[in-house]
Design goal:
CATH superfamily: MazG-like
Structural class: mainly alpha
Helix content: over 70%
Number of helices: 6
Radius of gyration: 16 Å
CATH class: Mainly Alpha
CATH architecture: Orthogonal Bundle
Largest sheet: none
Order of helices and strands: HHHHHH
Distance between the termini: 33 Å
Strand content: under 5%
Length: about 100
């Protein structure tokens, strides 16, 4: 997914925050609140695990896309975006995972 696609999705999610709940799936999720969004993130994470165990790469990609999407809905709900995550990944770039984890404690 290109940064352009992430930007377009971010803009769409922001627009859905103000939309009537009956107008779209995302607007309905925003209207239901954080618990409903978190439930979807957990559900999609489980589906990623099952797809991986099934060994069907196309299905895995499909489920990861759902997980990313719902994670982006959660970020938008919190006033964040994929750009915030990309900045964090860039910050970690070139740092050993062991070192990065040790720095958190």
């Amino acid at each position: 997914m290109s940064n352009d696609a992430l930007q377009r999705l971010t803009e769409t999610l922001e627009a859905r925050k103000q939309a009537a709940p009956e107008s779209s799936y995302v607007a309905k999720l925003f209207h239901k609140g954080e618990d409903a969004i978190l439930k979807k993130v957990i559900e999609e994470a489980g589906e990623v695990l099952l797809a991986s165990k099934d060994g069907d790469n196309a299905h895995l990609v499909y489920e990861v896309a759902d997980l990313w999407f719902h994670s982006m809905v959660l970020l938008a709900h919190k006033g964040l975006s994929a750009d915030d995550v990309l900045q964090e990944l860039a910050r970690r770039e070139g740092t050993s995972g062991i070192v990065e984890k040790a720095n958190r404690t």
